[in-house]
Amino acid sequence: MSEPSILVLGAGPAGATTALGLRRMGYAVTVVSDWRRFAAVEGVSQRVLEGLRHAGLGAALAEATTPATRQVHWNGERLQPNQEWLLDRQRFDQALRDDLNRAGVELVEGRVREVEQGQGYRVQLDDGRALHGDFLVEARGRQAPLSEGRLRGPETVSLLNLWQAEPGTLASAVESLDDGWAWMARLADGRCYWQVTLDVMAARLPGKTALPEYCAGRRRGSALVAQLFGEQAFAPAQVHARSSTAILVGNCAGPDWLRVGDAAMAVDPLSGNGIFQSLSSALQAPVVINTLLQRPGQAALAQRFHQTRIEQLFLRFARIGRDFYAQEAQRGTQPFWARRRGWPDAQPLHAAANWQAVRVEPRPVLRDGWVEEAEVVVTADQPLGVWHLQGVELAPVVRGLQAGIGLERLVTQAHQPMVERWLREQGF
Ligand SMILES: Cc1cc2nc3c(=O)[nH]c(=O)nc-3n(C[C@H](O)[C@H](O)[C@H](O)COP(=O)(O)OP(=O)(O)OC[C@H]3O[C@@H](n4cnc5c(N)ncnc54)[C@H](O)[C@@H]3O)c2cc1C
């Protein structure tokens, strides 16, 4: 039998990471992607840089050169400034493709019009070309056709504004507003970026042609904008409107397809974690796909692994966003804030420790390039289970303790302090 061919739709961080991982496993991968049709700047944290390094995306990583100091004005207070790396998304997306080319991944530039499923997949492009593959990875980001959205946050829109100023130092800032929040950044080459995020139902937006003046008017009222950019920011700029509603797709895996990145779960940009979550879902995807293709008997397990991890990741970021919105106490009753401070639920980000609820259960894990079942320790805070703690398998330890065996007989002396600490955190 010939090697299965894999088609990846979309060359953003999720598609590129998945394709590169599959290529390293020896699979024939073709990535088909259009270019992003608007300019954008995005801020990422240190762990995104680690994720890019881990994925082997060296050229993309090189796009993040120096961190910017980010000012945060929230709930009427100036919070401690923090750091973020600013990415020019057009250059970053180009660098992702350079990484793919260097790794020998076949890259087709084009826009996907239709995907037909029969004997494998037939992908029809706008220019008349057609591609075929046995396995399909959907990584077209928010533009991927939506199946039933399992969970959708309050409808949200972001207005991206871009203008050119004199070169200067990198800087970024975020501020809360009565009806939303604004993120702004200045790149070293003088490109300036201001993005306001609003509630679709509550915002009274003018027509498209009046948006540049509407946004400029809003900037004129901000002391932070004046401080970061000067008066040049008060003139109308180029505007692009984007949906930024948080969406978790109901079904992210099938026997011969997988959704990764924003195509599986798109988070609220407030979390600043979009690229991080895209990398997270894509880094695990090659092993899931390998299992689906080579061990069909384990297909259900592999799908469950992918689906549950996507859902857990989404809920974690949704709750982080909720708690950050809830910090804006002064504006809590305004429609934008009121709709977000209670979504997606009232569950705390971290469940309280409870040793009585700790149990050992079989769950899918990643082992040596496959999704397999292993005994893991399930806790209130880790419903997917913990398998290892820095190389120490936890299920035998918990079973032993529950049977009354002393910890000194279950782990080596060297590992005892670390395991004891973990046990205390679980309420032992
Ligand atoms: C307003 C806003 C602000 C954001 N700010 C940040 C931020 O500051 N920090 C952060 O980490 N994240 C941010 N994000 C999130 C981040 O942009 C995404 O999470 C991330 O890019 C998702 O990666 P991806 O690979 O899944 O999809 P994408 O990066 O969207 O890549 C999808 C690729 O598929 C291509 N494509 C789409 N349709 C087709 C088609 N029909 N045919 C062929 N190709 C196609 C696109 O051109 C693109 O290249 C923001 C998102 C929004 C909406």
Overview of the structural elements:
Helix 1 packs parallel to helix 7, helix 2 (46-55) packs parallel to helix 7 (274-294) and helix 7 runs antiparallel to helix 8 (299-326). With 428 residues, the chain is of the alpha+beta class. Helix content is 31%, strand content 31%. It has three domains: 5-68 and 79-152 and 245-340, FAD/NAD(P)-binding domain (3-Layer(bba) Sandwich); 156-243; 355-425, no CATH class. A hairpin with a 1-residue loop joins strand 7 and strand 8. The model has no long low-confidence stretch (mean pLDDT 95). The structure holds flavin-adenine dinucleotide. Flavin-adenine dinucleotide (FAD) binds at residues 10-15, 32-36, 42-44, 93, 111-112, 139-141, 143, 158, 195, 242, 244, 261-263, 269, 272-276, 278.
Chain-wise SSE layout:
Elements: E1 5-9, H1 13-24, E2 28-33, E3 41-44, H2 46-55, H3 58-61, E4 67-74, E5 77-88, H4 89-102, E6 106-109, E7 112-118, E8 120-125, E9 130-133, E10 135-138, E11 149-152, E12 156-164, E13 171-177, E14 180-186, E15 191-199, H5 211-220, H6 223-229, E16 238-243, E17 247-249, E18 253-254, E19 257-259, E20 265-266, H7 274-294, H8 299-326, H9 335-340, E21 359-367, E22 370-378, E23 388-389, E24 392-393, H10 394-402, H11 416-425
Parallel strand pairs: 1-2, 1-10, 2-6, 4-13, 10-19
Antiparallel strand pairs: 3-5, 4-5, 7-8, 8-9, 11-17, 12-15, 12-16, 13-14, 14-15, 17-20, 18-19, 21-22, 23-24
Helix pairs in contact: 1-4, 1-7, 2-7, 7-8
Flavin-adenine dinucleotide (FAD) binds near residues 195 and 276.
